[in-house]
Model the fold of this input.
Amino acid sequence: MLETSARLLKLLSLLQTPREWSGTELAGRLEVSTRTVRNDVDRLRNLGYPVHATRGAVGGYRLGAGANLPPLLLDDEEAVAVAVGLRTAAAGSIAGVEDTSLRALAKVEQVLPVRLRRRVNALQTYTVAVPARRRGPEVDPQVLTTLAAACRDHERVRFDYRAHDGTATRREAEPYRLVNWGRKWYLVAYDVQRGDWRTFRVDRIEPRTPGGPRFAPRPLPAEDLAAYVSRGVSTATWHYRARIVVHAPAEVIAQRLPATAGSVEVIDEHTCAVTTGADTAETMAMWIGLLDADFTVHDAPELSAALRRLADRYQRAAG
Done:
């Protein structure tokens, strides 16, 4: 039988898993009586741990949220995962989180057993990250948490928004999801004033108080919001757009065309339509050539001219 202090630590570790434990289950795990379990639960409560209990056949014990963060008991893999996550966060795009992550990492590494500290340090020493070509915008963590809470609670948000051209507008929106893409964060929300879905850069948002009323959730604009955001953000900067007919099955072309480069629609079993675009007509012509399939261009003179120039260049290179 475990000593009382060791038993309390093991009980706390069990209760930190997100589930309810019956007294019988805990007694079996700790190899004690259910009466001892009840006494140990009382000891944890006296130490400030909010252990909740429910009666009945499906009742049990679970650890609730308390006013103070209790010590966490992690197994080996969890401890390594936390340390690696903190190292990654220290190089992230959320303003101010770098120092906080490093302070938390120092505390974690101080109490790591030697065998685990060696694993974490080996990962740090022998891992090299490719730096971004340019540092992305920093996001205020308070803005992120405010938006996340509004998404969770289905509460409208009011904010000042600065567009990519510097234009400032006042917005009221129903927030649904935060999407992280590289070093940038985006808010997917329904713009109440414009009556449509919008994607907002979080680093350009300045929340205003008070917030808006609660709202009934709408169906999301897409099942895959990551693809929805990446496609929308990429297409927003297109200067040239075209819709071409590709003489190949849609499922084949969809595998070859990145979501950020366009969309694919089925025409029939052997043909599909591709809507694509780019900053220049030449870039768009190169993307289409990478589809490796015959295609037909309709009503896109800039693209047709770029394709002819590209074909002439390739023909001269081939001799």
